[in-house]
Specification:
mainly alpha, three-stranded antiparallel beta sheet, about 65% helix, about 5% strand, flat
């Protein structure tokens, strides 16, 4: 799919960016390419506003502009799709592009443009779409993250990748480190193994040697003790030591002696050798020589003797040693010989020596090992101490970190909860805003539909929907509902039911749309039929089951009852323990009670049979704990539980199978039922806990109530942390009070089932049962305090972790507490969240019926909190004591308060005392005689059927009326808009006008003034006008026919007929209710009189409905009679008299039919109402007649017996006032008296008879009163329905007639406007005929509009004349740009370097000013210059007395141009340097124009009105270009300009010194201050540009020079201390002072000669004098102080700007004196 789309985008559409399947999501994430695709199909006109950027604002802009276009194409697009595309979700862009591709192909086939598609949409949809687009933009802005968030996500991703890479690197390094460490450990292990192996090898070798060695055992001395042996050894050692010491002394003495002899010999030899030379030199004697020889021989002999002695001594020592060795050998041989005697003895000796050696080794090893063990124990002990300290420190750090983590988790949870609350609040606000938006749009739509006249009913319904949070617009169709309706259909059903209920309430209470008219307010009937209400209430009570008195006895009244609630670690248990010490109050904790109940089950706690009374009391205290209480809990908790005995039995079997298996099989539930209630509840709890389930609320409440019942009567109790949820509070309240609030409310509703009538004697108020608790105390603590408390507890437990080896139980208890604290710490977050979730409901529960909630701030210390709780408990106990008697538990159930019925047997005859109470009044005592049981069971469902059918019918009819109102509004709007569109249909008049205009303009020019032609043209205009009028008449007739067709449609008659049938259905509902009520009262009172109900064979009266279609239906097929509709035509109504009309103003024949039909419908409504009213009156009269007939029959039967006459008279007197019609009063008279019967009647029978007659009379009176009350109410409602029906029909007809009149008004106005537009066209045409002019602009005649379209011309205009190019004129001796370029080219050919000899320069000028050569090169004022004047001009331009700079001459000749200031020159230089990126000092023409000079060529040039006149010449713009040509080097390609050299030319100044300083500033690039003031030359005083002429008379140069001087003087006056600190190089200085270089170009044939600057050597000397030995740059301030530089600046004239205009001025004066040019002419030229 993506490849097909890419081919479509890249090849067919050729989008700006190539799209590939891999980059599909990224390419379309900004929305730019989607807009480009739509723009290529001419659907996105605002595509230039799109942005290719990928920032969030650009994406929001693009998708906001795309949304209306995509909706126009029918593409599914919302903020979720936009977010998916922006976030580059896979497949989102592909899906959208595929839908777009399909839609665009359909649009391409249809050939419609975007504007046509928009115009085809209705106006309402367009406005709604605009509002939806704004809402889409806002929602998309909320969905799209900001660009900073995108950047942050990108940076976060990059840092995450970097962190992952670093982490992997660390893991790799750690892995390599571990590998190296493992390798070292392996090598160390191998080394240790090898070392152990070598050690074992050596040990084995030693052991082998020991075993193989021959041990020399000396012969033990006889009879010597161990001490003697030791003494002998000591003596032997001492002797050996002495011998060794003596030998050492002898050896030392011998050595000393030898040393002395050697020293003496050496001394003598030295002496003799020293004297030998002297003796030999002095004298030579043979005697002395001989003596010396003798002496030498003696010494040799002595030495020989000493050597011999030493040799002998050595030999003696060797001999002694040899003898000792021989002796030892002999002894060894002896021992060997002795030992060789017995081999067994030798082996034994070896073994003994080996054992002795082993013992000694073992002893040494044991000593060494013990020493090692001791060192190791000390080291291990120290290591353990260090490890414990480190672990404690680390545990402390971990504990603090864990506390911080817990706090962070809690803060995160709090933030999430706050975010959830915010989201909930935000969603509610968003929903409300959506509803407000829907209401606003709905109101806007209906304002458009109804011309700003929205009916009150519609607005009221919308407000009801808005206030109830229902959507105003229809979400789904509910005409045909499926088996499982959708959510939207359910919402629509709820909306319909809500509006139906509101309409029914208005109808029932006669308010709003059904409010009473003024004429009916005075005859308002009673709002309630009290007799009927009493009857229904009595019947309903008979059908309800009899409520037995509650068997639940009252819970004993305690001193105080309450509960203490709060978060975990808020101080509940601590406060209650402190409270229990001071007051006799029982503290009940649910955790402890559950554990005790389970323990009671394990302990087999049984009921004590010896105390049956106590057992019964316990059962009464907790009635039906296993049955009724659990059943109520099952209703609340929605889970089913079996009886305790049946559930706990398997648990007991499982626990005791190992002890008595056979006995357990025989065990029954009877034995289990012997357990106490607490044990049974504990068994049930244990079973659930073993299954891993939580204990349900019902079971917890049962355990708590059981514990409460065990508390003594006079002792109060407080619940610790219970109830924890709203369900537990409800169950606890029901268990303690015995009543359920919800059941009480349901019973009250059941007793008040009827909504049509109400029994006023029944109290509507439901008594609220008192609360089971006296107070509920909340310890309010913040979450942070809770976390800090658990951390403190854990810290204390950690510090107390000192191992106690002696007391093992204490250690176990501490470990258990530690585990509990750790469990609490792990669960603290969940407990806090659970409390926060459940507390709002609990707070409402404890506050609403009776505010028993007390809040205490628990963020205080322990003592203050306990004291505060004590004060509150004391205050509550005082309140309870002040109330009087202590309260017990209230009984459940509501006892209805009724008036005691008056029994007929208790009634005694009493004289009639006026005024008698009327039936149904408050004083009236209702007849409550017993009735058969079958009657209520029949009449109550019958009344429910009556009521439900009545309400359903009324709601259905009112719903149809409500929906018909929307239909009427929509139809009338559709009629208006369709008629307007019909009036605006195309008329094709413009075709005739365009054809006439073309013919008119095509007339030849020579016939325009011909009279016959004009007459013909006027006739054509008349023909055109007649044709257009015919078109207007035809359109008017078509519009009138269209209006008549709309009027003659049957919609109005059908709508009126449907509305009449709806109102007839309301009448039928009232009539049916009356008939059913009459029958119910008749059956009830007949049953009270013990009579059989009469079967009513009469059919119910039906109100006829209108037959809307003309089909004939037989009467047998109809259940409801139909009345044919009679339409009155105008012909049949002509003979009738003029009737009353509801229409105002003039009526046409078409509306008379509407009026006549309305009068017929009005008459039909009146007839139907009279028929229904008469039927009700006849039914009441028939009932009264039937009563009188029955009474007469009974009186005839009674007259046969003897009765006192006064009794009959009293009956008649009571019956006559109740008769309401005159024609039936005669029937109430007593019959003629019969003869007395001979039967004797006892007084008791007479009294019973009198009572029965009186009761029968009262029943009749009550029955008739109820019937008459119902008749009055029904007649009133029928009259109200009739009135509203007539008003509704009149309003409907009025609206329709207003629309018909409005259509007629539009038709007439449009016809008149069209005729007027044709007249305007005729006038314009006649005007152009009379004026003989063509009509160039298009004449536009469409519908009723006529105008001359100035944007469209039927024939083109004549082309405008071409303006000639601007030409520069000669003015007062100023050279034109063309002349300057001509001079530049001539000078450039002669001297390309810019320097020329003065004689050559004069000759060139002289040649140019001659008549033969200079006619076109100079202006006329220059043509009169002679050779002396030219020489004078040359002398002003001479440089170094020989040469002339022709560029400077052309620069002066091009004046006037703005003289630059020094700051302007420096700014221009800076701009050139900025443009010159390579800093070469050269710029091209493009760069030159980009940088610009200090002035621009943008002058205000006036454009002449005459198109043939050329524009004024812009001299300054051409001067800027000429300066580039003047100073550029054309030898380079492209030509380049040395901008520094050019600016040095512009640095020239009338003041020589000032010119040099300006040049230095330009060369350096900064301002150079003048330190030495030089006197101004006389040339400056006489120099002025004002003497040149009118062009040069401009004060600009003089002002510039004056301003520059003033600025220079100010700067010189305020010279800063660090002025002129810039450094200047030798090259820059030589560039400023170019002495001698000018001669390079004086002769073209001597260009090969290179002359040196005359100042070069002097400048070198100056630099060396100033300390620059290597000619490095020096400061300007130092350079300016040098005398030569100062003298050079004062006398250097190259930068002086001479005034060449003086020569021209003098020449003009001379010519004027010769008569060639007069002074007056010169003055005129100056002016």
């Amino acid at each position: 799919m993506s490849e097909i789309l890419c081919q479509w985008l890249n090849q067919e559409l050729k989008v700006s960016q190539t799209v590939s399947p891999k980059s599909f999501a990224k390419a379309f994430s900004s929305g730019y390419l989607i807009g480009e695709v739509l723009h290529k199909f001419e659907l996105q006109d605002d595509f230039p506003e799109f942005s290719e950027s990928r920032v969030s604002s650009a994406k929001l802009n693009n998708f906001s502009r795309l949304e209306p276009t995509l909706h126009l194409l029918g593409v599914q697009f919302d903020q979720n799709v936009a977010q998916s595309i922006i976030t580059e979700k896979p497949g989102a862009a592909t899906k959208l592009l595929y839908q777009l591709y399909i839609a665009l192909q359909k649009k391409k086939k249809s050939g419609m443009t975007g504007s046509e598609m928009q115009t085809m949409q209705p106006l309402t949809s367009v406005r709604l779409q605009n509002m939806k687009s704004e809402a889409f933009r806002e929602r998309l802005r909320n969905l799209i993250p900001r660009q900073t968030d995108f950047n942050l996500m990108r940076v976060t991703h990059r840092f995450q990748e970097k962190y992952k890479h670093v982490e992997e690197e660390l893991v790799r390094v750690q892995f390599e480190k571990d590998e190296r460490f493992q390798k070292l450990k392996e090598e160390q292990r191998c080394f240790n193994i090898e070392k152990q192996r070598l050690g074992r090898r050596r040990q084995n070798e030693i052991m082998a040697k020991i075993q193989a060695a021959i041990i020399q055992i000396p012969k033990p001395a006889s009879n010597r003790t161990l001490k003697a042996l030791e003494a002998q050894k000591m003596m032997k050692k001492k002797k050996e030591a002495e011998d060794v010491a003596n030998e050492i002394k002898k050896f030392e003495a011998l050595i000393k002696k030898d040393l002395q002899a050697k020293e003496s010999a050496s001394k003598t030899s030295l002496d003799t050798s020293g004297q030998m030379t002297t003796d030999l030199l002095n004298t030579y004697s043979d005697d002395e020589y001989i003596k010396k020889i003798q002496k030498r021989l003696e010494e040799d002999a002595l030495a020989r003797e000493q050597r011999e002695k030493r040799r002998r001594r050595l030999l003696m020592d060797q001999l002694i040693a040899h003898e000792a060795q021989e002796e030892a050998y002999r002894e060894e041989q002896l021992i060997n010989r002795l030992m060789r005697q017995s081999q067994q003895e030798r082996r034994i000796a070896v073994q003994l020596m080996h054992v002795r050696h082993e013992k000694e080794v073992l002893w040494q090893n044991r000593i060494f090992r013990e020493k090692q063990y001791e060192e190791r124990r000390l080291k291990n002990f120290q290591d353990a101490l260090d490890r414990e300290a480190a672990l404690a420190k680390q545990a402390k750090i971990d504990f603090e970190e864990q506390a911080l983590r817990e706090k962070a988790i809690h803060e995160q949870i709090a933030v999430e909860r706050a975010q959830a609350r915010y989201q909930k609040h935000y969603s509610l606000c968003a929903e409300i805003l959506d509803h407000i938006l829907d209401l606003s749009t709905k109101v806007a739509d209906y304002r458009m539909l109804t011309n700003n006249l929205i009916p009150y009913k519609l607005m009221h319904d919308w407000k009801e929907l808005f206030f109830n949070g229902k959507p105003i617009y229809e979400q789904a169709k509910i005409k045909y509902l499926p088996a499982k309706p959708s959510e939207e259909q359910i919402i629509e059903l709820e909306k319909r039911d809500l509006l139906d209920g509101k309409d029914y309430e208005e109808y029932k209470n006669m308010v709003g749309e059904w409010s009473l008219p003024e004429e009916m307010v005075d005859n308002l009937p009673p709002s309630n039929n009290s007799i009927l209400g009493h009857v229904l209430h009595r019947l309903i009570e008979k059908t309800l089951p009899s409520q037995a008195e509650s068997t639940v006895p009252e819970v004993p009244s305690f001193a105080i009852k309450g509960c203490l609630l709060g978060k975990t670690f808020s101080g509940k248990t601590t406060s209650l323990k402190s409270l229990q010490k001071d007051f006799p109050i029982q503290i009940l904790s649910i955790d402890t009670l559950v554990q005790e109940a389970i323990q009671a089950f394990h302990d087999k706690e049984e009921v004590i049979e010896a105390l049956p009374v106590q057992q019964e009391a316990e059962e009464k205290d907790l009635p039906g704990l296993q049955d009724s209480n659990e059943e109520s809990q099952d209703q609340q908790n929605a889970f089913s539980e079996e009886p305790v005995s049946s559930e706990a039995l398997p648990a007991t079997e499982g626990t005791n199978t190992n002890e008595r298996p056979k006995t357990e099989e025989v065990k029954t539930s009877d034995s289990f039922s012997e357990l106490t209630v607490r044990a049974q509840l504990g068994a049930k709890s244990e079973k659930l806990l073993k299954k891993g389930m939580s204990i349900p609320d019902g079971l917890l409440v049962s355990i708590m109530v059981n514990a409460i019942n065990q508390v003594p009567v006079d002792q109060g109790w407080i619940l610790d942390g219970f109830p924890m949820t709203l369900n537990q509070a409800k169950l606890l309240e029901e268990a303690l009070t015995g009543c359920n609030k919800e059941q009480i409310e349901l019973e009250a509703k059941r007793t008040q089932i009827s909504t049509l009538v109400v029994d006023p004697t029944v109290s509507k108020e439901v008594p609220v049962p008192p609360s089971a608790l006296d107070f509920a105390l909340l310890l309010d603590i913040s979450d942070s305090s809770t976390l800090s408390r658990i951390n403190d507890i854990m810290a204390e437990a950690f510090l107390r972790e000192t191992p106690s080896e002696d007391i093992s139980q204490h250690v176990a208890a501490e470990n258990q507490d530690k585990d509990e604290n750790q469990t609490l710490k792990d669960q603290i977050q969940h407990r806090i969240i659970g409390f926060l979730d459940n507390w709002p409901l609990l707070e409402q529960w404890f506050s609403e019926p009776e505010n028993i909630l007390i809040k205490v701030n628990a963020d205080i210390d322990k003592e203050s909190l306990c004291q505060r709780v004590k004060e509150i408990v004391v205050m509550e106990m005082q309140k309870k004591k002040n109330k009087g008697s202590p309260k017990g538990k209230t009984q459940g159930g509501k006892q209805p308060v009724k008036k005691s019925p008056t029994d007929s047997a208790d009634m005694s005859p009493a004289p009639v005392v006026p005024p008698l109470p009327k039936p149904g009044s408050e004083e009236w005592v209702y007849v409550n005689e017993p009735i058969p049981e079958e009657i209520p069971s029949f009449l109550v469902p019958y009344w429910k059927l009556i009521e439900s059918s009545y309400i359903k019918t009324i709601k259905t009819v009112l719903r149809h009326l409500r929906e018909d109102q929307h239909t009427v509004i929509a139809y009338l709007y559709e009629v208006r808009t369709s008629f307007q569109h019909f009036l605006m249909r195309p008329d094709h008049k413009q075709d005739f006008v365009a054809h006439w205009q073309a013919d008119f303009n095509s007339l030849p020019d020579d016939l325009w003034d011909d009279e016959e032609t004009k007459a013909e043209l006027h006739q054509r205009v008349n023909d055109l006008r007649d044709r257009l009028w015919d078109i207007c008449d035809a359109r008017k007739e078509e519009a009138e026919q269209e209006r008549l067709d709309i009027i003659n449609e049957s919609w109005l008659q059908d709508s009126i007929g449907i509305a009449m049938n709806h109102f007839f259905s309301l009448m039928q509902a009232e009539l049916s209710r009356f008939q059913d009520t009459k029958r119910l009262l008749q059956d009830y009172y007949r049953a009270m009189e013990s009579k059989i109900p009469v079967e009513d064979n009469k059919k119910f009266i039906r109100v006829p409905l209108l037959q809307l279609d003309g089909k004939d239906v037989s009467e047998n097929q109809l259940k409801i009679p139909l009345v044919p509709r009679i339409s009155i035509s105008p012909e049949t109504a002509m003979s009738k008299p003029k009737l009353k009309t509801i229409l105002k103003g003039k009526m046409d024949n078409s509306l008379e039919n509407v009026e006549l039909n309305f009068e017929a419908d009005e008459k039909l409504v009146m007839d139907t109402w009279q028929q229904a009213s008469l039927a009700i009156s006849s039914m009441v009269a028939a009932e009264i007649h039937q009563k009188h007939m029955e009474e007469e029959k009974e009186n005839q039967q009674v007259d046969t017996k003897e009765k006192p006459t006064h009794t009959i008279a009293n009956k008649k007197a009571k019956k006559e006032p109740k008769k309401q019609k005159a024609d039936k009063k005669t029937k109430g008279k007593s019959p003629p008296a019969a003869e007395a019967s001979p039967v004797v009647v006892t007084p008791e029978e007479f009294t019973d008879t009198e009572k029965k007659n009186e009761l029968r009379l009262k029943i009749k009176e009550e029955h008739l009163a109820a019937l008459q009350c119902e008749e009055v109410a029904t007649q009133f409602r029928l009259e109200l329905i009739k009135t509203k029906a007539l008003a509704f029909l009149e309003d409907l007809v009025t609206k329709v007639v207003d629309v018909y009149k409005l259509m007629e008004k539009w038709l007439g106005e449009r016809y008149l406007n069209e005729m007027a537009s044709v007249e305007k066209l005729t006038e314009v045409a006649r005007y152009h005929i009379e004026t003989s002019t063509r009509i160039q602009n298009e004449l536009y005649l469409n519908q009723e509009d006529f105008f001359i379209n100035g944007d469209i011309k039927v024939f083109p205009d004549s082309p405008p004349p071409i303006r000639p190019p601007p030409v520069e004129k000669e003015e007062n001796g100023t050279l034109t740009i063309e002349q300057l370029d001509s001079l530049r080219s001539q000078f450039l050919d002669v001297a390309p370097k810019g320097i020329i000899g003065n004689k050559t320069f004069t000759d060139i000028l002289l040649d140019l000013v001659t008549l033969n050569l200079g006619t076109n090169n100079f202006p006329s004022t220059w043509m009169h210059l002679n050779q002396p004047e030219l020489q004078e001009l040359t002398s002003l331009l001479i440089v170094n007395s020989e040469f002339v700079d022709w560029r400077k001459f052309l620069l002066l000749a091009s004046l006037p141009w703005p003289i630059p200031l020094e700051e302007e020159l420096l700014e221009t230089l800076q701009r050139f340097k900025t443009v010159d990126e390579e800093q070469l000092g050269m710029v091209t023409l493009e760069q030159y124009m980009q940088a610009g000079l200090w002035f621009t060529g943008d002058e205000d040039i006036k454009i002449p009105e005459n198109p043939l006149e050329p524009l004024a010449f812009n001299r300054q713009e051409h001067l800027i270009e000429f300066f580039f040509r003047l100073f550029a080097d054309y030898e380079k390609d492209p030509p380049q300009l040395d901008y520094t050299q050019m600016l040095l030319y512009f640095a020239c100044h009338p003041d020589t010194v000032e010119g040099v300083y300006r040049a230095l500033s330009v060369a350096i690039g900064t301002h150079v201050f003048r330190r030495i003031k030089t006197p101004t030359p006389l040339v400056d005083k006489t120099f002025s540009f004002t003497d040149v002429g009118p062009v040069a008379a401009s004060p600009e140069p003089e002002e510039n020079i004056r301003e520059e001087r003033e600025l220079k003087e100010e700067k010189e006056d305020e010279i800063p201390e660090n002025a002129n600190t810039e450094k200047i190089s030798m090259e820059t200085l030589l560039k400023v002072f170019q002495g001698g270089i000018e001669a390079q170009d004086c002769d073209r044939f001597a260009s090969h000669l290179k002359t040196e600057n005359i100042y070069y050597e002097k400048f070198i000397k100056i630099f060396q004098d100033l300390g620059a030995k290597n000619l490095e740059p020096i400061e300007v301030a130092v350079l300016l102080k040098h005398p030569f530089i100062q003298d050079l600046i004062s006398n250097y004239s190259d930068y002086r700007m001479p005034d060449i205009k003086i020569v021209l001025q003098r020449s003009e004066h001379v010519q004027g004196s010769d008569g060639e040019r007069s002074p007056s002419r010169l003055t005129e030229e100056k002016k």
